[in-house]
Amino acid sequence: MAAKSLPSAPQTTAGRGRAVTQGQWGRAWEVDWFSLASVLFLLLFAPFIVYFFVMACDQYRCSLTAPLLDLATGRVRLSDLWARTPSVTKEAAQIYTLWVTFQVLLYWLLPDICHKLLPGYVGGVQEGAVTPAGVVNKYEINGLQAWLITHLLWVVGSHLLAWFPPTIIFDNWIPLLWCANILGYAVSTFAMVKGYLFPTSARDRKFTGNFFYNYMMGIEFNPRIGRWFDFKLFFNGRPGIVAWTLINLSFAAKQRELHGHVTNAMVLVNMLQAIYVLDFFWNETWYLKTIDICHDHFGWYLGWGDCVWLPYLYTLQGLYLVYHPVHLSTPHALGVLLLGLLGYYIFRMANHQKDLFRRTDGRCLIWGRKPEFIECSYVSADGQRHHSKLLVSGFWGLARHLNYTGDLMGSLAYCLACGGGHLLPYFYVVYMTILLTHRCLRDEHRCANKYGSEWARYTAAVPYRLLPGIF
């Protein structure tokens, strides 16, 4: 649902030139029956899926089958479950309003200084990829700075000054869910109205004639307010991903409050997911080249997904461990740690190879050798021809999306840290497998239309998508 920091297209370098025909970028122009059915299913059921998982933990100690059996046998009714669910509170509304406002201020008004202080970090004002209409947007990259300031204030406020308890997020978890839903629906609706009435770039809009598809997948490519407030970059990175590590810390604090200690499983989940979050912000400039920014329009899929789906379902492992304080054996813990770190290494190094290849226009070394690549071209909506090189060396010679494979290994590690007592913490790896497989197919369909026969040459050179020799 909500996108993570994932590469948009295969390992390319691109330059500008002259043109002839237009390639297919972004979301669809027309909606087939399967796409419409999928959109309606997600619009109707995705909010209930989030509610079901959160309710199962709150009322059934994270059992997914117990509430279903109770409903099937008539022991409870849906109205009973709803009646026992905490509603929105004044405290939760104040916390959430303060949180979002603070993140907006950090994003919009505070110029980045981390790129001046941290060697190797690329922040400050950066250019994004060319849009289908040929526009190149500029972004203020300051996510790492926002993450550091937020977590510093969290430590000071909760531990040093005792302004609030470190369990505050867990203690208001379900009331905060309703606040997140309000924001998710509000921003998605605003984005649709804006796309019709006052778009940032009218040439980068897409209409299908179907209200539900337009609402979910978005009309505007890069909706903005003013010069710097970009909806896609803000909602993809803040407030959800900044909150991810704070949510896990609050869960760890609650586990300690309830059980007297923090288990090694909770430590592993916090550590491995913190690595992923910090990697996202350290490489936020690279994120400007990913599928979310380069191809997706901004609609309910990103707006609601980043406000609700991401913070509530990507943190299920920590939530589960509050109710079930799993303590792993040393071999199990080491195995989870090694799997998570190996997955992260593959994910990061594959993306590093792609970025290095793109930045140097292929004048670099991949695994100690000059890179092999396939030259191709495509045409944007403004009639400009762009030339690309598709890398077929290093990790990108093993599979077309091996970075996704590394991401899935990390996802599995999060889940394995929770042991095998319940299905709930494993939802994440199942979801990520579906999401990333779908992204593979979606990305390759787009690339086939974009590059034509040159894409067929590439797939012949790199025949596997995710698992070398298998798929």
TrEMBL record:
Interacts with DHCR24; this interaction regulates DHCR7 activity. Interacts with TMEM147. Pfam families: ERG4_ERG24. GO terms for molecular function: 7-dehydrocholesterol reductase activity; cholesterol-5,6-oxide hydrolase activity. Its EC number is 1.3.1.21. Oxidoreductase that catalyzes the last step of the cholesterol synthesis pathway, which transforms cholesta-5,7-dien-3beta-ol (7-dehydrocholesterol,7-DHC) into cholesterol by reducing the C7-C8 double bond of its sterol core. Can also metabolize cholesta-5,7,24-trien-3beta-ol (7-dehydrodemosterol, 7-DHD) to desmosterol, which is then metabolized by the Delta(24)-sterol reductase (DHCR24) to cholesterol. Component of the microsomal antiestrogen binding site (AEBS), a multiproteic complex at the ER membrane that consists of an association between cholestenol Delta-isomerase/EBP and DHCR7. This complex is responsible for cholesterol-5,6-epoxide hydrolase (ChEH) activity, which consists in the hydration of cholesterol-5,6-epoxides (5,6-EC) into cholestane-3beta,5alpha,6beta-triol (CT). The precise role of each component of this complex has not been described yet. The keyword Transmembrane helix applies. Pathway: Steroid biosynthesis; cholesterol biosynthesis. Keywords: Cholesterol biosynthesis, Cholesterol metabolism, Endoplasmic reticulum, Lipid biosynthesis, Lipid metabolism, Membrane, NADP, Oxidoreductase, Steroid biosynthesis, Steroid metabolism, Sterol biosynthesis, Sterol metabolism, Transmembrane, Transmembrane helix. Belongs to the ERG4/ERG24 family. It catalyses: 5,6beta-epoxy-5beta-cholestan-3beta-ol + H2O = 5alpha-cholestane-3beta,5,6beta-triol; cholesterol + NADP(+) = 7-dehydrocholesterol + NADPH + H(+); 5,6alpha-epoxy-5alpha-cholestan-3beta-ol + H2O = 5alpha-cholestane-3beta,5,6beta-triol; 7-dehydrodesmosterol + NADPH + H(+) = desmosterol + NADP(+). It is a multi-pass membrane protein. This is 7-dehydrocholesterol reductase. It comes from Molossus molossus. The keyword Membrane applies. The lineage of its organism: Eukaryota, Metazoa, Chordata, Craniata, Vertebrata. It comes from the Eukaryota. The chain crosses the membrane at residues 33-54, 144-164, 176-197, 302-323, 330-347, 411-436. InterPro entries: ERG24_DHCR-like, Sterol_reductase_CS. It is found in: Endoplasmic reticulum membrane. One of its GO terms (cellular component) is endoplasmic reticulum membrane.
